[in-house]
Amino acid sequence: MLFLLVVVMFVLLIIVGVAYRK
Q1: What is the CA radius of gyration of the chain?
Q2: Mean pLDDT throughout 1-22?
Q3: Model-level pTM?
Q4: How many CB atoms lie within 10 A of CB 13?
Q5: Predicted local confidence at residue 22, as pLDDT
Q6: Where in the cell is it found (predicted)?
Q7: Which residues are within 8 A (CB) of 20 and not within 5 positions of it... i.e. 6 or more apart?
């Protein structure tokens, strides 16, 4: 469960990074 939470947060961080780069 904890690992899944880390993965979700990591994916959100990537999405924010890509959106900010645009």
Answers
A1: 10
A2: 95
A3: 0.53
A4: 10
A5: 76
A6: Membrane
A7: none
